[in-house]
Amino acid sequence: MRRAAILLLSAVLMPACLAHYTYPDLVRPLAAPAAGTVFHDVRVFAATSTSTLEHQDVLVRDGRIVSITPSGTPSGTPSGTPSGTPSGTPSGTTSSAPLPQGAQVIEGSGKTLMPGLIDFHGHLTGTAAPPWKLTWPDPDHTGRAYLYCGVTTVYDVAGDLDELVTLRKREAAGEWLGPRFTYSGQMVTIKGGYPASMVRDLFWWPLSAIASGHFASEVSDAADAEREVALRQKAGAHHVKVAVAQIPLGSPVFDEPLLRSVVTAAHARGMKVVAHIDTQEHALLAARAGVDVLVHLVQLGPLSPETAKELAERHVSVALTLVAFDRMERIDELRYEPTAIEREMNPPEVLEPWSAENVRQNKVSKGMQEWVKALEASHALRLQNVRNLMDAGVNIVAGSDGEGSAATWAGGALLEELLLMVKAGIPPAEVLLGATSRAARLIEAEPDFGTIEAGKRADLLLVKGDPREDADVAARIELVMQGGRVLDRKALAGH
Ligand SMILES: [Zn+2]
């Protein structure tokens, strides 16, 4: 009865208060020639190590990488090779194999071919809009925005399960263009815990009641945990997301036995468990309960070298999502600006609600304000936390919280994350591994993506120069290929 009342109210209220935008197309897949496509005389960052191969021909056919061979044409190419670059090609002595007849040739000299990027923390059915300008999620735009930015795989770590199942069906029917993805469905949390607590803090009834079920499944005992995990597996979920955090500060959080019951139910089905955490205490709680990946770094307070060591010993990986916290701080301090590529992809009216003017006029709840202040107080600690994770040898991967947090626009936020990882002290080549092969191995035991090797899926990115200098893919991106098809990135011309 209550549910019926909520549905009725929502049908009346929601369309009236939710914004819907029209976006440019961004990308259009071009037909792949039957004879294949050759990237000619290109530098290859295969993501199997931090080094590159110079002057290679990479042949792609039927959606797969067929071969990587020395092009044998190093003479006459621009001297764009950085000195000291490890090279797998004997200098100019190899004879070239003839290019296959009829193949499309893409000139690669002075450029680098790398695997398509992986966002290890995305939300394909979410939105990065503020609570004062509620917006319909637009998975069609989100999918294309990711591809426009060279992100060909997204690890979706929370969204409405029914919507994700629908998206999977649309993908299978060729009705949805976007990165390949795996999903978890709603976050699993303790009764009254984050994110249900945050939704109730941010929105008025009945929207809060509708939205909390949309974001979270609240559990009280092991039977609940078992049921929620089984339900996810049945709906095609690949992993389970748990919330072990307090937003607003002081909201209920999992105890270790209950959290372990979720982990046990998931692992029994071969599903990994990923956790939203905030503090060191909660990171340890998650790790000790058997969680596989923390999908945020410790963002409130310190993460000690000892804790980092324990995470490494327990083989817990971390997707940092520095960009999500950086943007929240900038927004609160009235100094947030979208990046150039985000302005290219999003009409001004989409970005405008996060302007300093709008933020000043639309204060969030007191609970949220306190939380953001705590975040700001931990700004310097966060960088030290990254260094401690690195020093302990924790497996670090790139994640953006795309469309799941404040102004974390799909694709653009991940490109910004790569730069923030470099700023935090991670060498650019290591950052690129964290956004490709390392993330792929965390998604699948034997992934057919995330590296450039014969037989792998042709999800590729062609960039100017050598991205190992700065991990600035946004400034370098030239061409995106998904499943062997070049994506026309000029589709937004005229917008
Ligand atoms: Zn998220």
Write the layout of secondary structure elements.
Elements: H1 2-17, E1 28-29, E2 37-44, E3 53-61, E4 64-70, E5 104-107, E6 111-115, E7 117-122, H2 139-148, E8 151-156, H3 161-172, E9 180-182, E10 187-190, H4 196-202, H5 207-215, E11 216-219, H6 222-234, E12 239-244, H7 256-267, E13 272-277, H8 280-288, E14 293-294, H9 305-313, E15 317-319, H10 322-332, H11 340-345, H12 348-351, H13 356-361, H14 366-377, H15 379-392, E16 396-397, H16 412-423, H17 428-434, H18 437-443, E17 460-464, H19 473-476, E18 477-482, E19 485-488
Parallel strand pairs: 2-5, 2-6, 7-8, 8-9, 10-11, 12-13, 13-14, 14-15, 15-16
Antiparallel strand pairs: 1-19, 2-3, 3-4, 6-17, 17-18, 18-19
Helix pairs in contact: 4-5, 6-7, 9-15, 10-14
The structure holds zinc ion.
- Reading off the top of the CATH hierarchy, the class of the largest domain is best stated as Alpha Beta
Record field, number of beta strands = 19
Bound molecules: zinc ion
Beta-strand content estimate: 15-25%
Low-confidence stretches at least 5 residues in length (pLDDT < 50)? 1-8, 74-95
Shape: globular
CATH topology of the largest domain: TIM Barrel
Specify the structural class. Answer: alpha/beta
**Estimated radius of gyration:** 23 Å
Specify the CATH architecture of the largest domain.
Alpha-Beta Barrel
Report the span from N to C terminus: 47 Å
Helix content: 25-40%
Largest sheet: 9 strands, mixed
At the fourth CATH level, what is the homologous superfamily of the largest domain? Metal-dependent hydrolases
In round numbers, the mean pLDDT is 91
* Domains (count): 2
What count of helical segments does DSSP give?
19
